[in-house]
């Protein structure tokens, strides 16, 4: 079923005559528009895209299946006119993306409103063949960049230098926008799951966590590898690594359509708990990836979602020991009826760097 048809089916169930889409990622998903100013209103019969004069030609090139309207008044007033013209008695809005000030402006215009939660996101959660192809290309770009980075991972270089090098390599692969700032964390810093690269120099015995992603046509990838610099005493580092690798393997083996997301998380978490590191794995096991680098489904102990076929998400358990270091291994998977289709292909055998 086409995206607009799926959305319209949800509108009737929600008891609204139309929906105001203001989240630019959702706008892009529905309309194809990649600019920075615009919104959409979809009713049971009409699909409208509204922007200002700066993006008129931009919109005509990128959007299909939508009537383009150029704003000629204040936004709340424009929405009021549209509601009257298209007989929208109750207008749904994205509750995560309309701030209170704008909400008050709409109320002042006497527009009857109803908040809607994750209506477009629940459609985005399942990827089409084209979307899967786009994400696959984003994965390939990221992996190619990482392969080219590996000769530069050595003792004496800094986290910042490696991060900047990887960012440049990603752009040289064709990534127009990076999904997030590259993470390079070494030694004790690697115990911080979302560490920012510093001027710290890599040294023997360091665990080095590298978390990065690629992009293609607005779709993203996200992956993490941990490497180890050779040192005098690295048995504990190796032990941590293989515990995380086993936890990830168990979680990936759990993936299939119909399984609860929380059960995938539990497969990794229960193993890490048995290994004695339960308190050192505090984040969820994964998250969806697509037009946003963090989207549904959420793979954690808190999740109530059930995995469906062609959902794309990460599997990324980790162990983080304060003052010592951490390990995270992250791959992207597509859920299928028979199990996980692993999109990422970089080797996961522990790489020990001798230089």
Descriptive report:
With 355 residues, the protein is an alpha+beta fold. The protein folds into 2 domains: 122 residues, 3-Layer(aba) Sandwich (Creatine Amidinohydrolase, Chain A, domain 1), CATH 3.40.350; 225 residues, Alpha-Beta Complex (Creatine Amidinohydrolase), CATH 3.90.230. 34% of the residues lie in helices and 23% in strands. The strands form 6 sheets. It has a 6-stranded mixed β-sheet. Strands 7-8-11-19 form a 4-stranded mixed β-sheet, sandwiched between helices. Helix 7 crosses helix 8 and helix 9 runs antiparallel to helix 10. The protein is elongated.
Walk me through the topology:
Blueprint lengths: L2 H12 L3 E4 L2 H8 L7 E5 L3 E5 L4 H7 L4 E4 L4 H11 L4 E5 L5 H9 L3 E5 L4 H4 L4 H21 L9 H14 L10 E4 L20 E6 L2 E2 L2 E2 L2 E7 L5 H20 L6 H14 L11 E3 L6 E5 L12 E4 L2 E4 L3 E4 L2 E6 L2 E4 L9 E2 L2
Parallel strand pairs: 1-5, 3-4, 5-6, 11-19
Antiparallel strand pairs: 1-2, 2-3, 7-8, 8-11, 9-10, 12-13, 14-17, 15-16, 17-18
């Amino acid at each position: 079923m086409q995206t607009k048809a799926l959305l319209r089916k949800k509108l009737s169930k929600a008891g609204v005559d139309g929906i105001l889409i203001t989240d630019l990622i959702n706008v892009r998903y529905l309309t194809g528009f990649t600019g920075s100013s615009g919104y959409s209103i979809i009713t049971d019969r009409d699909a409208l895209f509204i922007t200002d004069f700066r993006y008129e030609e931009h919109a005509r090139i990128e959007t299909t299946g939508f009537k383009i309207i150029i704003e000629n008044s204040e936004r709340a007033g424009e929405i009021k006119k549209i509601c009257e013209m298209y007989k929208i008695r109750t207008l749904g809005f994205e509750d995560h993306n309309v701030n209170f000030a704008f909400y008050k402006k709409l109320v002042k215009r006497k527009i009857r409103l109803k908040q809607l939660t994750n209506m477009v996101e629940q459609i985005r959660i399942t990827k089409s063949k084209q979307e899967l192809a786009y994400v696959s290309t984003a994965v390939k770009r990221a992996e190619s960049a990482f392969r080219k980075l590996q000769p530069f991972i050595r003792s004496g270089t800094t986290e910042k230098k490696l991060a900047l090098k990887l960012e440049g390599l990603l752009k040289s692969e064709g990534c127009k926008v990076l999904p997030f700032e590259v993470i390079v964390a070494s030694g004790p810093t690697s115990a911080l799951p979302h560490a920012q690269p510093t001027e710290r120099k890599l040294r023997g015995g360091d665990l080095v966590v590298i978390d990065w992603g690629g992009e293609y046509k607005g779709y993203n990838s996200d992956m993490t590898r941990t490497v180890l610099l050779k040192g005098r005493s690295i048995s504990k580092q190796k032990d941590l690594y293989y515990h995380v690798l086993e936890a990830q393997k168990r979680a990936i083996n759990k993936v299939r359509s119909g399984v609860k997301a929380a059960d995938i998380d539990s497969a990794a978490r229960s193993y890490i708990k048995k290994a004695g590191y339960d308190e050192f794995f505090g984040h969820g096991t994964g998250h969806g990836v697509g037009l946003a680098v963090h989207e549904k489904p959420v793979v954690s102990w808190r999740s109530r979602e059930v995995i469906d076929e062609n959902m794309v998400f990460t599997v990324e358990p980790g162990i983080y020991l304060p003052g010592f270091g951490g390990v995270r291994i992250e791959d992207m998977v597509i859920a299928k009826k028979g199990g996980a289709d692993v999109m990422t292909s970089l080797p996961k055998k522990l790489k020990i760097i001798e230089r």
